Amino acid sequence: MSMPIGLGLPPTPPPVLAPRRKTRQLMVGSVGVGSDHPISVQSMTTTKTHDINATLQQIAQLTASGCDIVRVACPMPIDAEALPIIAKKSPIPVIADIHFQPKYIFSAIDAGCAAVRVNPGNIKEFDGRVKEVAQAAGDAGIPIRIGVNGGSLDKRILDKYNGKATPEALVESALWEASLFEEHGYGDIAISVKHSDPVLMVEAYRQLAEKCDYPLHLGVTEAGPKFMGTIKSSVAFGALLSQGIGDTIRVSLSADPVEEIKVGDQILQSLNLRPRKLEIVSCPSCGRAQVDVYKLAEEVTEGLDGLEVPLRVAVMGCVVNGPGEARDADLGVASGNGKGQIFVKGEIIKTVPESQIVQTLIEEAMRIAETMDPEVLAAAEASGMKAEVKVTR
Ligand code: SF4
Fold first, then answer.
1. Which of 11, 224, 240, 264 is the most exposed, having the fewest neighbouring CB atoms within 10 Å of its CB?
2. Can you spell out the DSSP letters for 186-242?
3. In this protein, which residues make up the domain named IspG C-terminal (predicted)?
4. Pocket lining for ligand 1, CB < 6 angstroms
5. Whose CA is closest to 190, among 267, 105, 115?
């Protein structure tokens, strides 16, 4: 098989649907947030924050699955007391999520958290404390996320909009709080205007994007269980990211937070906003299929799990249309009549019995990965992708 020959030129980046909206830049610990930086993926721990070991263990799992920034809740004094150890031992930046009690904002800043998320709608007398918060965050050099939420909008603004958390109301609340921080000379601000309805959420972020240059944290709040939440977040984030809006994302699912990271990562990869890693393309199957495509696709996906190189592998149900339909794949199989035609870049390289398809694809994928153009690997690595060839089975 012929491999690409490097000419010393950097590889052309894959096309995106729109350039990123220009924003001011923030540093959340070591992670840059804003238009000069790759879009980061966040999640939030589900453990009791004061259970330090459980929280650090979950942060380790999230980090291993590709999480860039993690948020922890801080509802009680014992949670605030746990923050210094968690912030110190976490391998990724920790954001403290503060509701109700302004005193925890100061605890989180003192604890060394990389940022603090505040919800002005439910922090008592927040506006009157902004000066102190701006001072403390400014002295510590950390950003604040103003996290407005459709379900807990500032009562004054809710009243003004007849009790409805409209996109205009969400945006007004966020920009009002931001203006208070700006009055005190503090502008290290990211904003979110989350709503559980993806249509209202998209509209709110569109309006916000027009009115400010703050980096935006995207989220559909209370999106639902895994299936429903994945669809809602993918649709809403896709609508915004395809217009260049969004600098960091959090998929909210009623599921293991590792799932949130997987979904967020896949959304960004699908839009070429992150380098694509292993991608399995499989046909939907039809009356021509001579093999159980769903099962084969699952087995191939499982067999290649952990292969972290940009490789597109096609699993096709028949030899009639399979290789042609999967011409863009690096590697693939077209099955039929108890056999599998293995093809590389559209060319059939061998035919194997059905029982050997999965094993053969794994071997071929390894072979291709090991001989992959170093420039492709370097570009992937430069964009934050793990370029090492790693197979776990
Ligand atoms: Fe049908 Fe073959 Fe196309 Fe799969 S590859 S959808 S089996 S025609």
1. 11
2. ---EEEEEEBSSHHHHHHHHHHHHHH----BEE-BTT--SHHHHHHHHHHHHHHHHT
3. 279-365
4. 283-286, 288-289, 316-318, 320-322, 325
5. 115
The first and second tokens of residue 21, run together, are 């909206």
Residue with more model confidence, 157 or 387:
157
pLDDT for residue 193: 97
C-alpha to C-alpha distance for 18 and 32, rounded to whole angstroms? 20
Residue 43, CB-side half-sphere exposure with 13 Å CA sphere: 29
**C-alpha–C-alpha distance, residues 362 and 50, integer Å:** 43
pLDDT at residue 387 greater than cutoff 50: no
| Nearest CA owner, ligand 1 atom 5 | 322
Q: How far apart are CA 157 and CA 384, in angstroms?
A: 41
Q: What is the pTM of this model?
A: 0.85
Least confident stretch, 5-9, 112-116, 245-249, 267-271: 5-9
Is 113 labelled as part of a ligand binding site? no
Q: Which pLDDT value is given to residue 9?
A: 61
Task: Quick: pLDDT tens for 163-188.
Answer: 999 999 999 999 999 999 999 999 99
90 alpha carbon, distance to own chain's centre: 19
Residue 163, phi then psi, degrees to nearest 5: 75, 10
Write down the pLDDT at residue 26.
Answer: 97
Q: Which of 359, 358, 342 is nearest to 350 (CA)?
A: 342
Taking the CA of residue 318 as reference, the ligand 1 atom at the shortest distance is 2
Cα 123 from Cα 121, distance rounded (Å): 6
pLDDT attached to residue 110: 95
Q: By alpha-carbon position, which residue is closest to atom 1 of ligand 1?
A: 286
- How wide is the angle at C-alpha 363 spanned by C-alphas 358 and 368, nearest 5°? 125
Report residue 316: phi and psi, to 5°: -120, 145
Ligand 1 centroid – CA 364 distance (Å): 22
